[in-house]
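User: I'm new to structure prediction. If I give you an amino acid sequence, what do you actually give back? Let's try with this one:
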Amino acid sequence: MKLQFISQQHVEEAVKFLAGKGHLPYTDASGKPNHRLMGAAWAALHGGYRGNKYEGKDKTAALVKLKGVYKSEKMELPTESFSLDGEFFQEALASSDSLNRIYWQVSDAINANIQAGTDMDCDDDGADDAGQCSCGCRCGHSYDCKCCSNCGCTYPQTACILDFFPQQVVYSMNGGMFQCDWVIDADGDVKLGTPIAVETSYTPVESSETHESFRVMACNALPLQESAYDAASGKLKITIIKPGLNKSKARFYPAETLKRDFHVFEGAKMFADHQSDKEAKDKPEGSVNNWVASLKNVHAESDGTLAGDAFVIDPPFKAKLDALNKQGLLHEMGVSIRAIGEASEQEREGVTTNVVESLIAARSVDFVTYAGAGGQIEAMESATQDNLNDVDLVTEAVLRQRRPDLISLVEKHAQEITMKSVEQQLQESQAQVATLTTANKDLTTKFEEAQKTAAKATVSAEITKLLSESKLPAISQDRVRKQFAEATEVKDIAEAIKEEQDYVKQLGGGKSAPKNLGAADNGTTRESDTTDHKANLEEAFKLMPGMSDKDAKLAARL
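Assistant: Good question. You get back a string of structure tokens that encode the predicted 3D arrangement of the chain. For your 558 residues, that looks like this:
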């Protein structure tokens, strides 16, 4: 064998790179794709490999090329969604090729530490957990060694992985549960952190109890802030509603509800004071004389608080805001919302309240006199909470009590619609049944006709075969064919041919079926007798229905 020495330069030249000379190697010295190097290159092109992330101008081309290499190697692409917490996991994946292999590497490392005497169950008895071999048989202390089995040797404890994470592993050992960090170093070896004891905890599951929803008036009042008013433009930044319980604790506004439904307040008109019951009845849409501002740029802040910009359009009201602002009394005016929502009765913050699960529509966001310290806010919020005259809020029970005639009319109409729907469905079903019945009848008829045609073809073929073997005259064959022209079963054909042969034999005067109906077959030997007999036969055949002169001559010679 001849030894060859390859220079380091030649080895480096054989390695292939994804991004130019020296960047992102993906093959070994022989030029064959190396799975560990491929994984490292993938990590460098995504979250980073050992803190190094490739950002070259040819990054896209390198990634495309690497995907092609993975495809040629018939390997699945590594995930592209590793978080920073999973950086160690990327490196492990790059060096170990598969998740399953990483799992068993970590498992083997834990058990190797146990056998080496490392305390992996946090009870300071690592040497005991490692087991003791007292017989000195040098078997490696294996479980199947008969010597160790008989001398009282103690075997090492083992660990079983319960949960496996990118940087931590949870395992059971010696009746306890433990967790430790892990990482795979540059040489592909697993390094374990210091184990800690852990336990399984149970978190209460939210009640699956369903709550009956009903309509409510969403009411909330908040003061204005001096710093939020721009006197020059008349624009006022206002807080519309905050998550949590309102002042009267009659409503609870979840942050998720406000973040989802804040758009109902966009463009809402802002009036000076809430409508009175009489005004709400006479002009439910509100009076243009009281319309002083409009609300725009409504948005939800991170905690769910709804805010927006009030653009004042009424000069007298703007003058009032200017005066309050100059005197530092702007906080004594506030805004109060009127909106329709869906709520259900639940307990929040130790209070049984109406949890607003959705906001359906905003009536208005109005300017009101604000005097929270004296309890005026609670009265203001509750003033419109239970308005039985509001059609958007009235309950079914109240409506049945106050307008039974309307309930009866609605139910009657609903029943009529239901009956019409049932009748229509019945008619449609009957029409479908009729159509399907007709279609089925047509298909049955066609099928029967096809069967009959096939049967007649079979009979015709059988008749042709038997007649060709019978040597009957053409006129006799036609007689047999006509007899079975509509036949669909192959029976009685042979008998009919036999009868026809007997009939032809009788015409010939012999006692047995004639061969060719000639002179020899009729028992005559003289030429004159033969001639006379042929003439007689020819005349006899001419008398047969449908027999032409030509056929009669032919039959007489047979």
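You can read the tokens as a compact description of the fold. Here is one thing that stands out. Residues 63 and 259 are 40 Å apart (CA to CA).
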